[in-house]
Amino acid sequence: MPSFARDPGTATYYEQRAAEYDEWYESLGRFASRPRPGWDAEVDDLCRFVHALAPARTLDVACGSGFLTRHLRGFVVALDQSPSMVTLTQRRLPAGIAMRGDALDLPFADDSFERVFTGHFYGHLPPAERAVFLGEARRVANELVVVDTALRPGETAEQLQERILNDGSRHHVFKRFLSAEQLADEIGGQPVLAGDWFVAAAASR
């Protein structure tokens, strides 16, 4: 099983993808012609779900461009390995902090936060990295909220995907699709969002 969180090729992919990352959420560029019924409405629902989380001192792990991070309430620290993603998130987080860091070795003391939030990161992790991430999340915060991609009918639950960026470059990324119940079971919590496109679960230690 390939590494994800510390794989140089994956890091290169997300650094190159930063400027076009939001096209996935916003159905722009190569995503404009994809048949994704109900997608735009569910993205709006997802943003409302994130905003509805109680204000808390929150660490957003693998924040990406900050598309979801900006909806978190309370003091937010956003972490990503990509410098370009960190720059994009900081622009969207004027009252918070965006910084580079290792999701499997969080640079914070025990109980530094009330909540760890992560969106579309957990589903990329192979088993060993999942275990390390969950251990780190529980170390730095009492609550964990994980958002990821729903398993849809006919979809293969685990894939090594080829992804093509706007510059034509091709990259390979490990990806899992999960039901809300499976996600909740894996993190030891409860389902809190079960959509056609997105799922979420929350756990407390």
From TrEMBL:
It comes from the Bacteria. Residues 59-141 form the Methyltransferase type domain. Gene3D superfamilies: Vaccinia Virus protein VP39. PANTHER family: METHYLTRANSFERASE (PTHR43591). This is Methyltransferase type 11 domain-containing protein. It comes from Cryptosporangium japonicum. The lineage of its organism: Bacteria, Bacillati, Actinomycetota, Actinomycetes, Cryptosporangiales.
